[in-house]
Amino acid sequence: MANPQNTTVAGRATSASGAAGSMAVIAPIAGWLLPGLGHFIQRCWIRGLLLMLAVFIMFFAGLGMQGKVYSFNTGDLLDMLGFVGDFGTGVLYFIAKAMDWGIGNIHNAIADYGTKYIVVSGLLNVIAAADAYHIAIGKKQ
Amino acid sequence: MTFQLSHFSAAVLFALCASTVFGITQRNTPRDMLRYGAYCFMLFVAGVIVASWVMWLVKH
């Protein structure tokens, strides 16, 4: 007959690994959708807030500088990569497209900086989502 | 709403945001995060200053 105490311990371990497994899926997706959310749901409040601020400031500063938000395209390679970078901002990208923000301004040199800001904010958000995944699987505290 | 930043202030804002994310994501303890973030920020800004002097020398 199995020891009930051992069974309980094994059950707890299984449920804990199941929770960690689901968090490993949810955290990076949440972190991608809304910058910092992947850390918030794991109770890393300050880290999540700082990541959210960094990505939001870069994204909206880029828009403020009249940067361009790329649409899905199959044209020039740099345009496709620009779309991939922009898409990394998650919900910010969808809001920008829905509100018709990020038209771009080719007559303004600073607008090109804005375009790069928006792309890099997406790439930084992907790094932040990967960090949320590492916390979820226990690779990082 | 639009705003204009100078080249240097745009580079410093970029450096600040990027080094914040690098610091948090690439290190494990808060102390190391702060140190690495400051290190990245310093390298970004130093790189901007060096590149600008190189461009000045190329021009002259």
Q: Count the helices of chain B. How many?
A: 2
Number of separate structural domains of chain B: 1
Largest sheet data of chain A: none
Proportion of helical residues of chain B = over 70%
Rg of chain B, rounded, reads 14 Å
Which residue ranges of chain B are poorly predicted, with pLDDT under 50 across at least 5 consecutive positions? none
The tally of beta strands of chain A, per DSSP, is 0
Question: Greatest interface and its residue counts?
Answer: A-B, 24 and 19 residues
As a percent range, the share of strand residues of chain B is under 5%
Number of strands of chain B: 0
Say what oligomer this is. Answer: heterodimer
Q: Tell me, rounded to a whole number, the average pLDDT of chain A.
A: 90
Class computed from helices, strands and strand pairing of chain B: mainly alpha
Give a short account of the largest sheet of chain B. none
Describe the 3D structure.
The complex is a heterodimer of chains A (141) and B (60). Chain A has 141 residues and is mainly alpha-helical. Chain A has one domain (4-136). Chain A has helices at residues 4-33, 37-40, 45-64, 77-87, 91-98, 109-136. In chain A, helix 1 (4-33) runs antiparallel to helix 6, helix 3 packs antiparallel against helix 6 (109-136) and helix 4 (77-87) packs across helix 6 (109-136). The longest helix of chain A is centred in the N-terminal third of the chain and has 30 residues, at 4-33. The two termini of chain A are 39 Å apart. The mean pLDDT of chain A is 90. In chain B, helix 1 (7-26) packs antiparallel against helix 2. Chain B has one domain. Chain B has two helices and no strands. Chain B is flat. Chain B has 60 residues and is an all-alpha fold. Chain B has helices at residues 7-26, 30-59. At the A-B interface, helix 3 and helix 6 of A face helix 1 of B.
